[in-house]
Amino acid sequence: MSIQQLYTEAQQLSTAKLRDDIVQQLYERSHRLCAEGIKYTKSNRDTRTEKLDAIFTSPIFGFPIMLTMLGVLFYLTIAGANIPSSMLAEFFGSMEKYLTAFFSFIHAPDWVHGVLVLGLYRGTTWVISVMLPPMAIFFPTFALLENYGYLPRVAFNMDRLFKRVGAHGKQSLTMAMGFGCNAAAVISTRIIESPRERMLAILTNNFVPCNGRWGTLIVLASLFMAANFTGGLKSLVTTGVIVGIVMFGIIVTFFVSWVLSKTALKGIPTHYTLELPPYRKPKIFDTVVRSSLTKSWSVLMRAVKVAAPAAILTWVFANIFIGDTSILMYAVEFLDPFGKLLGLDGYIMMAFILGLPANEIVLPILLMGYLSTGSLTEVDSLVDLKQIFLDHGWTWLTALNMMLFSLLHYPCGTTLLNIYKETKSKKWTFLAFLIPTVIAILVPFIITQTVRFFGWM
Amino acid sequence: MGNSYRVALAGNPNTGKSTLFNALTGLRQHTGNWAGKTVSLAQGDIQYKDKTFNLIDLPGTYSLFSNSSDEEVARNYIVFEKPDVTVVVLDATSLERNFNLALQVLEMTKNVIICINLIDVAEKQGITINERILTNRLGVPVIKISARNKKGFPMLLDTIDRIVTGAIDCQPVQTTYPDDIEEQIKKIEPKVSELIGNELSARWVSLRLLDGDENLLNEINERFGQKERA
Prior knowledge:
Chain A: This is Ferrous iron transport protein B. The complex is a heterodimer. Chain A is mainly alpha-helical.
């Protein structure tokens, strides 16, 4: 007799409620064991976690608290990063003067100065001064929330929503990872067992802004959206805009998950167990040091590594002329009509295309593009920065569209590579590129055409 | 290699299993806040007296019914790789829920140690655990430790040592099920014994077959089929 026959025989004997009976028996025995072997002498069981959970995961307060936490997190990041950012920018700006002086002192050819100082130096220092301060605040604060035990509560709150759109509750965890880095988050989707729901999580992860895009979002929001406010109110309005953008990204995540789970990835969400660990006071010093040193540093190094070659490339494109037009300008002029349809322009489209390897470099490339054409301004502060944008016909609509495009567009090169490694499918990797791209084109297009139709702009 | 023994660590997520593993082996290893997919099992060696204990950190699971690949990895290791000792780590503050996993392990293998962790937290909460009663009811050693404060380690290592030398003979007390299930087991068990011999617990395999565990069926087919061919 084979084991297969035995299995068939066993199945004929067995009843549907066998598993329930087994589990019930196991729990009854556990209960008896505890009754016999355990004494609860004091009644001071830890009720703090339960009390906190009643608030944090409450159907009424849960979501407002989550939104507030998110807002506070961004506010701290934006308000706190402002001053160190401009200090760094000023510092690097003044260093640049010395560098330029040095290059003319050794009689270096113009192109060497161009590639190294105007290209490489400006590009990378820009990335550092814009990205380092927000990251040095965002990551440790996020890590504190995580270590305190709040993140599993977020997953708990979001679970219902993800279930409703046919996705897995754990997708809220991979989504939270995406705020740090989409490429890492794609790998973290391994925690989702079902291949269908894992694919949903992979395809939609890009709709939460990773830290490579925070820089772009924060700069544009504070320059254009909160332009008429000053002081603390300015940071507050910027925060509001950023929270709005993030919320929109999450709504798109739900929408795309829902559409996919009704079409290409049909199915019913599977169950899972989510343990809510007790709230623990995080080791503040440890957490802050570890996350700012390891995480911020590694992300920054990656950014610089990608930014450096891209900066050189952009400078070269902007300075090699065919006839009397640079290669960059040919591309810009080619892309311009399409960009205008979306309320953007050729430079912006160019920056996003060249920025495929890493989102961090989109804004620096854009600036280099603008600066390479005539109106040469020293970018010492954010005010100068705004002037550059205004000189190229920017309005709040341009800024909004660029923010939305940045939020929604195709994943960066590293993320796409990880998606391919994880799914081992060219088709799904291509879809992971296509779906966000189509949405990123449609949303600004609709907004721009609506605004123009009603003559608001 | 005659003095080397494999010791598997099983337990629910968030019971401090990985903390125990790190404290014992000194091997740095990431402890995740939520149950993830352990692709490769972390291993580390401990020297104790004249022996080497090779510790294997199984994925944290709530049960071993092979509902997920984590559960399957843990289950297959215990059943088919046959570690010399299986240590089940329980959270002292939520024992009633944690015992469920321990009882399942007792059905699968003989040499089990029930290791109640976080005993310091439990004592603060006024929970007193009588390990002698529990040892008596379960038929295997029950030990209280605090992995974070490295309390109870000598006792744990000594117990592992005494199990592998045969000084302690574990006699896991099996869970009895309602009469109808017990009768079904009785019908299947002798045939299972005949087919797979003493390699696996016949009672446990019978239960799994009755429960319709196709993953286990495939696993047995694969492993035992290969053996026959070899």
